[in-house]
């Protein structure tokens, strides 16, 4: 089957998978550069990157990749006889791996100044943007262009979205009161999204935490929440605050430290 036709099917049917491409080879290897394989969540594959232990390791890494949504280049050294098949060839191979399919969703609760700017930026960055706000006048396409759907409350959202992958969901609460946060957070936590961020001061978050604990939410669950939200960019305007929030989301999505690029070295996994 044509790999690109399969990718198109994955995208049109709302599925998720990992595309694996042999990008570099050295010495004797089972497949040449450009060889492709798709790995599905259940381990099923289309195509091949060489078979044997190399392919088995690639499938294992791909399934893990589906859980965290990262992109990796895996480097295999096929030189150790104890590894079985890799020891037969004696070469080296780089395999690029990328999640394809469903767009990652960002759920913005609160369509005020920051929420509005955040929706613009998230849409521009390729996220599927969903907004919740009880103020219907803020949910028009004119005010929030590019958003895929709007809801008056979390209950309506949960009725509509009954099937989604937790690692594909990022939740940002830019609400106007901690009462709304405390009301929605228990249900948000149950969704187990990839990221939960709550806007507000340290004082507001301390109070929110107290109320959540009183409602029986475990401290270990509360500690997963990002609040105050965003990276320390000394931001003040809604646009800058939205940028700092999206920077933090990308930091989580891409599983990176967010260091200045001068200190950054691309992660590379070696299997020997």
Keyword list:
272 residues; alpha/beta; Rossmann fold; 2 domains; six-stranded mixed sheet; five-stranded parallel sheet; 9 helices; 11 strands; 36% helix
In a few lines, what is going on in this structure?
With 272 residues, the protein is of the alpha/beta class.
Describe the protein in words.
36% of the residues lie in helices and 22% in strands. It has nine helices and eleven strands. Strand 6, helix 4 (113-124) and strand 7 form a beta-alpha-beta unit. Helix 4 crosses helix 9 and helix 6 (178-191) crosses helix 7. The chain is elongated, with a radius of gyration of 22 Å. The two termini are 32 Å apart. Mean pLDDT is 84; it is low at 83-87.
Helix content: 25-40%
Structural class: alpha/beta
What is the CATH superfamily classification of the largest domain? NAD(P)-binding Rossmann-like Domain
Strand content: 15-25%
* Main sheet: strand order: 3-2-1-5-4-11
CATH architecture grouping of the largest domain: 3-Layer(aba) Sandwich
User: Which fold name fills CATH's third level, the topology of the largest domain?
Assistant: Rossmann fold
- Low-confidence blocks of residues: 83-87
C-alpha termini separation: 32 Å
The CATH class designation of the largest domain is Alpha Beta
The arrangement of helices and strands along the chain is: HEEEHEHEEHEEHEHEHHHE
Counting H and I runs of at least 4 residues, what is the number of helices?
9
* Mass-distribution shape: elongated
Radius of gyration over alpha carbons?
A: 22 Å
| Average pLDDT taken over every residue | 84
Main sheet: strands, sense, barrel: 6 strands, mixed
Give the number of DSSP strands: 11
Number of domains: 2
């Amino acid at each position: 089957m044509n790999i690109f036709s399969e990718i198109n099917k994955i995208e049109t049917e709302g599925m998720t998978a990992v595309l694996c491409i042999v990008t570099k080879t050295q010495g004797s290897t089972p497949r040449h550069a450009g060889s492709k394989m798709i790995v599905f969540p259940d381990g099923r594959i289309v195509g091949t990157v060489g078979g044997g232990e190399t392919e088995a390791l690639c499938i294992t890494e791909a399934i893990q990749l589906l859980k965290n949504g990262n992109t990796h280049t895996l480097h295999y050294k096929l030189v150790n006889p104890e590894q079985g098949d890799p020891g037969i060839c004696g070469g080296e191979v780089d395999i690029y791996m990328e999640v394809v399919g469903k767009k990652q969703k960002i759920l913005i609760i609160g369509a005020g100044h920051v929420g509005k700017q955040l929706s613009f930026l998230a849409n521009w960055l390729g996220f599927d943007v969903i907004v919740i706000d009880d103020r219907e006048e803020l949910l028009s396409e004119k005010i929030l262009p590019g958003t895929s759907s709007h809801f008056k409350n979390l209950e309506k959202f949960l009725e509509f979205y009954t099937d989604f992958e937790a690692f594909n969901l990022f939740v940002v609460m830019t609400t106007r009161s901690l009462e709304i946060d405390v009301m929605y957070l228990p249900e948000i936590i149950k969704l187990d999204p990839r990221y939960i961020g709550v806007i507000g001061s340290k004082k507001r978050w301390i109070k929110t935490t107290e109320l959540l604990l009183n409602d029986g939410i475990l401290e270990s669950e509360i500690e997963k929440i990002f609040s105050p939200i965003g990276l320390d960019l000394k931001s003040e305007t809604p646009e800058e605050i939205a940028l700092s929030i999206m920077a933090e989301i990308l930091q989580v999505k891409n599983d990176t430290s967010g260091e200045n690029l001068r200190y950054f070295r691309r992660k590379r996994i070696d299997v020997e």
